[in-house]
Write a structure and sequence with these properties.
Blueprint (H helix, E strand, L loop, with lengths): L1 H11 L23 H53 L19 H11 L12 H13 L5 H4 L9 E4 L7 H11 L6 E4 L8 H11 L1 H4 L12 E4 L7 H9 L6 E3 L14 H4 L5 E3 L8 H7 L8 E3 L8 H9 L6 E3 L8 H10 L5 E3 L8 H10 L5 E3 L8 H8 L6 E3 L8 H10 L6 E3 L7
Parallel strand pairs: 1-2, 2-3, 3-4, 4-5, 5-6, 6-7, 7-8, 8-9, 9-10, 10-11
């Protein structure tokens, strides 16, 4: 009780600690925190501070979770966009075809030709350029539709040995006459002008003959075109039989004559061809439908030097007569009667019997030809090197394999012949492995 009174007096009247009194606890600086009330206040304050800390901690955690959720949402959106872009992509090439082949690197010569074509209007002269390169450049220029009159003059001057212009659609009669006047020289051996219908008619043929005969007027023996052996005038729809005879009269040593799509020709030009061109070895009258089968039957046997004959689409209704007339040419080695839809097995069998040394035959789109004709070829023409029977749908795999077993085929075209299959392929592999060079089996589903 005495201690309690002294402690109460101490708290009521604060004084410095009495070092002699060990039973009175003054508390020092923490004296005011002692006691029930002070402890309770301290606990309340600590609880509030802890609650505030927990609130701040929870707020920070929620903020972190929100940021993490936001980042996750952005990542998911990006993944969805990437997935949509991948799903929307479609290959430009069928994946079943396998990996794309490597891009072919163009040879330096082709790159140079392309550059010359792009700047052909800047070329002043082709003097000294070999004829082979002239021909390649002319083909590239024509393919780019840049063979204008000014450009065509480059290929005619400087006495070239070969003038080959596959497309002359931009040359009018005046430009073509000027071209012919320049290129007709004693050195000219090959003259091929494609699509000359606009610029080459009877008047230009007369000028051609007159220019070629200038050598005779100057006292030189023969024509200025004595060296010309190959002549092609493609699409000359303004040229008549009389014009053709004038041209032939100026080319006494002509060996190859091609007049495809010359619609005005009637066959009268064939009368006398053996005298005007006695050395003629190739004659191409593709789609000259004004020439009748009767005239062909009368005139073709007179061409005693002819080895190659092209009559594609000349008269679809008289195919057998045309083949029979061609078979009467003694030295014939190659015949093409594609698109003569009336050709039958009878004429093919007769051809095989009369021409055992036939080497090339083209029967594309001759839908009436069947196994009987092809088997006759296999039996009679053992040396056949080229056979083209595209869209001859009546042929069987066995008949074609018989031709392959002859062992001489170098070129075979059977596109759209649906029966062509394993027997023919096996025969080719066994008998023509060393000789075969080209094989067209497009749309042959049985292979």
């Amino acid at each position: 009780a005495d201690i309690a009174r002294r402690r109460a007096a101490h708290f009521a009247n604060y004084a410095e600690d009495d070092p002699t009194d060990d039973n009175v606890h003054a508390g020092g600086k923490e004296a005011r925190t002692l006691g029930p009330w002070s402890s309770a206040v301290e606990l309340v304050n600590a609880r509030e501070q802890a609650a505030e800390q927990r609130r701040l901690k929870m707020a920070g955690k929620q903020r972190g979770e929100a940021e993490e959720a936001e980042e996750k949402g952005e990542a998911e959106e990006e993944a969805e966009r990437l997935l949509e872009s991948i799903a929307a992509w479609r290959p430009s090439r069928d994946p079943k075809l396998g990996p794309r082949p490597r891009t072919r690197v163009q040879p330096l010569f082709e790159l140079c030709i392309a550059m010359l074509v792009d700047h052909v209007d800047c070329i002043d002269s082709l003097f000294g350029v070999p004829d082979v390169m002239r021909v390649r450049l002319a083909e590239a220029v024509c393919a780019s539709c840049k063979m204008e009159p000014e450009v065509s003059a480059l290929f005619a001057v400087d006495t070239p040995g070969e003038v080959v212009l596959p497309s002359c659609v931009l040359l009018d009669p005046a430009a073509l006459s000027s071209l012919l006047a320049e290129c007709i020289t004693p050195r000219l051996e090959r003259l091929e002008l494609g699509f000359v219908g606009r610029g080459f008619g009877d008047a230009e043929a007369t000028l051609f003959a007159q220019t070629a005969k200038k050598g005779e007027a100057c006292g030189n023996a023969g024509s200025m075109l004595d060296s010309l052996t190959s002549l092609l005038l493609g699409g000359a729809y303004r040229l008549s039989d009389a014009g053709v005879k004038q041209v032939l009269g100026a080319c006494p040593r002509l060996q190859q004559l091609s007049l495809p799509q010359a619609s005005r020709l009637t066959g009268a030009m064939l009368d006398g061809v053996e005298a005007l061109a006695p050395s003629l070895r190739l004659l191409n009258l593709t789609e000259c439908r004004g020439i009748g089968s009767t005239q062909l039957a009368q005139m073709l046997p007179k061409l005693t030097s002819l080895e190659r004959l092209v009559l594609d689409g000349i008269n679809p209704e008289s195919g057998d007569e045309i083949v029979t007339a061609a078979a009467s040419i003694p030295p014939l080695r190659a015949l093409s009667v594609s698109m003569c839809t009336s050709v039958t097995d009878a004429s093919i069998s007769a051809l095989a019997a009369q021409k055992p040394d036939l080497q090339e035959l083209k029967l594309d789109w001759c839908s009436k030809v069947s196994d009987a004709g092809i088997l006759a070829l296999a039996e009679g023409c053992k040396g056949l090197q080229l056979l083209s029977v595209r869209r001859c749908v009546r042929l069987s795999d066995g008949a074609l394999s018989a031709v392959a077993r002859c062992g001489k085929l170098q070129h075979l075209a059977v596109s759209n012949v649906h029966a062509f299959g394993p027997f023919s392929m096996a025969a080719l592999a066994a008998c023509c492995a060393e000789s075969l060079e080209t094989l067209d089996i497009s749309f042959c589903r049985a292979v």
